[in-house]
Design brief:
- This protein is of the alpha+beta class and 162 residues long.
- It has one domain: OB fold (Dihydrolipoamide Acetyltransferase, E2P), CATH 2.40.50.
- It is built from 4 helices and 7 strands.
- It has a 5-stranded mixed barrel with strand order 3-4-5-7-6.
Length: 162
């Protein structure tokens, strides 16, 4: 028995003393997201603009903004263009404390929407924007949006044990 315990204890000590990288995933929404089907945000935009009737996509992008009031929307940023707001179908939420730059996988539908002055101001209030920025909103605007029925947020963290 002693011959078995000593090597096992040594192996456990060895593996727990090494630096490990942990990747955590959290799913939100009614639809499971298949990350193996994901394309980049830029590729999604190209496909949607070329053929707007094909509007259902799975894409990945880092988060650049999260609703600070309830977690009811996030923003993503294409490499060449304006922010895109991702809203959540049937109003599911993600934690407002979700870290910026966390990689997320989205499944849902792209669409253009006219945002009223009130809704634009509401989004800025949710983002805790300064009042001076909110006051600049004076006209409706058309923007590309995405309604997600599933989101998978990936967060990497390194953990060192010595």
């Amino acid at each position: 028995m002693k011959r078995f315990i000593l090597p096992l204890a040594t192996a456990c000590l060895f593996f727990t003393s090494c630096t490990t990288s942990k990747i955590a995933y959290k799913h939100y929404g009614p639809v499971a997201v298949d990350s193996t089907q994901a394309i980049t945000l830029d590729a999604m935009l190209l496909k949607f603009k070329a053929q707007p009737t094909n509007d259902v996509f799975t894409f990945s992008a880092p988060l650049v903004g999260v609703c600070q009031s309830a977690g009811c929307w996030v923003n993503v940023q294409p490499s060449n263009g304006d922010l895109i707001r991702v809203r959540f179908k049937d109003h599911f939420l993600i934690p407002p404390a979700t870290e910026i730059n966390s990689v997320a996988y989205f499944h849902g539908r792209a669409y253009y929407d006219t945002l009223s002055v009130e809704l634009q101001k509401h989004f800025l209030e949710d983002a805790k924007a300064p009042q001076s920025e909110i006051d600049k909103i004076v006209a409706p605007k058309i923007e590309l949006n995405f309604v997600a029925d599933g989101v998978w947020v990936k967060k990497s963290s390194s953990k060192s044990k010595k």
